[in-house]
Amino acid sequence: MRFFATVREAAGVAGCEADAEDLASLLSELGRRFGPALSSALRMYAEEPERLVVLVNGRNARQSAGAPVRLADGDDIAVFPPVSGG
Questions:
Q1: pLDDT at residue 86 greater than cutoff 80
Q2: Exposed (0-12), middle (13-18) or buried (19+): which is 65, by Cβ within 10 Å?
Q3: I want to staple 20 with a disulfide (CB 3.0 to 4.6 A). Which of 6, 13, 25, 64 is the partner?
Q4: What contacts 24+ positions apart, CB below 8 Å, involve 37-44?
Q5: What's the CATH class of domain 2-80?
Q6: Mind listing the pLDDT tens digit for each residue in 5-32?
Q7: What is the largest CA-CA distance in the chain?
Q8: Which residue pairs, CB below 8 angstroms and at least 24 apart, start in 54-63?
Q9: Distance CA 32, CA 9 (A)
Q10: pTM for the whole thing?
């Protein structure tokens, strides 16, 4: 799992290893593990998904149409705020 930009700052690390059966469980676990700053940032994914991008194996997890995103051993997960600019 890799963190970028403000999400990395909230976690205090660039990445970590974690196991979970689905994305929601993983984000919840990481919030508990790394504390309130990361927990708040990750909560945005559930409450305001446009404010956080989560990629699982290079695919935007929001494209799952609300279905739980199942995870498998070795999945590459990246979490970052949306990129803006022009």
A1: no
A2: exposed
A3: 25
A4: 37/9, 37/10, 37/11, 38/7, 38/10, 38/11, 38/12, 40/10, 41/6, 41/7, 41/10, 42/7, 42/79
A5: alpha beta
A6: 999 999 999 999 999 999 999 999 999 9
A7: 37
A8: 54/23, 54/27, 54/78, 54/79, 55/79, 56/23, 61/23
A9: 16
A10: 0.86
